[in-house]
Amino acid sequence: MAEDLEELLTVREVARRLRVDDTTVRRWIKSGALEAITLPHRGKRQAYRIKKSTLDALMRGTTPAS
């Protein structure tokens, strides 16, 4: 249940924390290098959300526990 309440980050938030461009984060998601939740397409670009634990694991250099 706690997993359901986990904080989700936008592509822009992840990009800022990693100090990379939004396009780089999107490329990582599309290549499978970064796990993300795909939201229904509503605008020009596909919307994604990244779990904070996934980002934390990436920054530590470990794989997130599923």
Automatic annotation (TrEMBL):
List the InterPro entries. Answer: DNA-bd_dom_put_sf (IPR009061), HTH_17 (IPR041657), SinI_DNA-bd (IPR010093)
Q: Specify the Helix-turn-helix domain's residue ranges.
A: 8-61
- Gene3D superfamilies on file: 1.10.1660.10
GO MF entries: DNA binding
Record protein name field: Helix-turn-helix domain-containing protein
